């Protein structure tokens, strides 16, 4: 069996970092070298990195009704008049982890802000890098128990220009939407696939 992940953080040498922009997110240019699979070191590599930090997302699952809460909101990155489809995306409840916060705290707070629901039995599902070729963002996904009968209406913080519509969707329907591309953002697809693999365990633990 071939070795995997034979390198560590220490096998990259940072030569220089240049700050390019500091706004809602940060942009920097990184010059680096790294060890090669065949041995030795690479030449200088230059990459621009969008620095976003970390975010938490919630697979908000109601085991009694076998339903999941999705939220819908506009995303400017999905706007392209040359393409079909809508820039209003169906997503998991999610939010950025601010300095001094724990990912679990963000999951609880965003469930209230974006969907008006209390989440309990918060369970870590997985943590993943989001597009690490050019973005610094670690996504922490949690499964949480909710009462979906209380999820309805419009939510979001006006000062953050949020306009969020809540949807309660049968788990099987949400999974089918992910399969055929009605749900087409990576975090939601990943969360719904995780739920499809693990919902029976959640039902056993939460019912």
Automatic annotation (TrEMBL):
Cofactor(s), by name: Mg(2+)
Single Gene Ontology BP annotation: nucleoside phosphate metabolic process
Every Nudix hydrolase domain range: 51-191
Gene Ontology cellular-component terms listed: cytosol
Family named by the database record: Belongs to the Nudix hydrolase family. NudF subfamily.
Species of provenance: Exercitatus varius
Matches recorded under Gene3D superfamilies: Nucleoside Triphosphate Pyrophosphohydrolase (3.90.79.10)
E.C. number(s) listed in UniProt: 3.6.1.13
CDD domains recorded: NUDIX_ADPRase
Role according to the record: Acts on ADP-mannose and ADP-glucose as well as ADP-ribose. Prevents glycogen biosynthesis. The reaction catalyzed by this enzyme is a limiting step of the gluconeogenic process.
SUPFAM superfamilies: Nudix
Source species, domain of life: Bacteria
UniProt-recorded name of the protein: ADP-ribose pyrophosphatase
Gene name of the encoded protein: nudF
Keyword Magnesium: yes
NCBIfam families with a match to the protein in the record: nudix-type nucleoside diphosphatase, YffH/AdpP family (TIGR00052), PRK10729.1 (NF008003)
Motif placement: Nudix box: 95-117
Record's catalysed reaction(s): ADP-D-ribose + H2O = D-ribose 5-phosphate + AMP + 2 H(+)
Pfam families named in the record: NUDIX
UniProt xrefs under PANTHER family: ADP-RIBOSE PYROPHOSPHATASE, UDP/ADP-SUGAR PYROPHOSPHATASE
Keywords for the protein's UniProt record, in alphabetical order: Hydrolase, Magnesium, Metal-binding
UniProt-listed InterPro entries: NDP_pyrophosphatase, NUDIX_hydrolase-like_dom_sf, NUDIX_hydrolase_CS, NUDIX_hydrolase_dom
Keyword Metal-binding: yes
Residues bound to Mg(2+): 94, 110, 114, 162
GO molecular function, one term: ADP-ribose diphosphatase activity
EC class of the enzyme, as a word: hydrolase
